[in-house]
Structures are given as structure tokens and as C-alpha cells.
Amino acid sequence: MSTVQAAPHVHHDPVGSRIGMWLFLLTEILLFAGCFLAYAVYRARYAGDFHFAAQELNLSLGLVNTLVLLTSSLTMVLGIASIERGRVRAAAAWTGATIALGAGFLVIKGFEWAAKFHHGIYPNSPQLASAHTMGEQVFYGLYYTMTGLHALHVIAGMAILAVMLFFVVRLARSEGASGEAREALAGRLENAGLYWHLVDVIWIFLFPLFYLIS
Predict the structure, then answer these.
(1) What is the pLDDT of residues 174-189, one digit of tens each?
(2) C-alpha 7: how far from its chain's center?
(3) 152: number of CA atoms within 13 Å, CB side?
(4) Residue ranges of domains in the chain, CATH in brackets
(5) CB atoms within 10 A of CB 183
(6) Contact in structure between 206 and 44 (CB atoms under 8 Å)
(7) Which pTM does this prediction carry?
(8) Which CA distances in Å does 72 have to 1, 58, 100, 137?
(9) Are 213 and 50 in contact, with CB atoms under 8 Å apart?
């Protein structure tokens, strides 16, 4: 006589996990708030130099990267909505698309940085020290620091989403997956999405501060 084994219970505390994620995001916001405060102080002191130095940045690449990250936020939302509706395979596809868009952002940013390095515009370079004013040097120092810190967060977000993609794909291949397991995974994917949206929002502030002030 065969017995049917019940699906294992999956502990899931959506409220607690969401509160924990928001507390973590608060620390990230405080980190970038310090950077934005430093930018505001030096922007007030070297307004003319900041205006001139910003003209050396590639506005087109900055705009493309903005569109890339905005699109990645859309695919992230679609991924969360898909898994909440039980469309696990679609959730995996949208999550993978979000990771791919994040990688595209980093590639574009890499080309932009490479062009600046080629022209000798990087922190402590002889070209930057000899041919640019102190205010311009401060501008580029903040540019590399803040966009570099943001890029590290993009990489971290991609790593988190890659882990989530692994679990989503595993759930999609599991025939006996319970609704409880899907609900728990949906909660974790939503938390990962919150982090990704924060990364996007930070860039929405960085883009005008560095690219549009000229």
C-alpha cells in the first residue's frame, strides 16, 4: 500500500523579510546620501568648473545606459508578476533578461571609462593634473567614485539575481513544487527586485548630476 508524502513545509515570513530588506536598503541610501552631499558641497564651490568638465562626458552613452536600466526595472517587475501568477518559466526568462540588461549597462560604462582613460582623464593622471583646474579634477574624482560605486552595486545586484534565477529555474523543472514553495520564492525574488530598483533609482540621480549640468 503506497502512501503519498506531503510536500515539505517551506518557512516563509514575507513581512519580516521585506522589513529586513528595507532596513538594508536604508543603509545603502545613507551611503549614497553622503556621496550626494559631497557632490553638492563641491558643486557649489566649483560651479563653473563642474559645468565645463561635464561637457567632456558622453551624453549619448549616459542616455543609453539610463534607458537600459529603466528597461531592466520593467523586466524585473514582469519577472515578479510572472512568478506570482504561477508562470515560473516566464519569470526565469524575465529575470535572465534583467541580468543581461545589467551586463549591457556595465559594458557601455566600460567603453565610456576606457575612452576617458585613453585621453588621460582619470584620478591622479598627469594629464588631468596639468591640463585641468582643481574644480575639474574634483568633478572627475567624484564621477569615478560615484559611478564606480554604482557599478559595484550593479554587479552585486546581478549576482543576487543570478542566484534567484537558479532557484526559479529549479522550481520550473520541479514537477511536484507546491504553491507554498512558489510563494516563498516569489517573496525572495521581490526582495531582490527591491534592491535592483534601488540601483536604478540611484542612477536616475547620477545621470543628471554628471551628464546634464552642462
Answers:
(1) 755 556 777 888 889 9
(2) 36
(3) 7
(4) 16-212 (1.20.120.80)
(5) 14
(6) no
(7) 0.88
(8) 52, 21, 9, 32
(9) yes
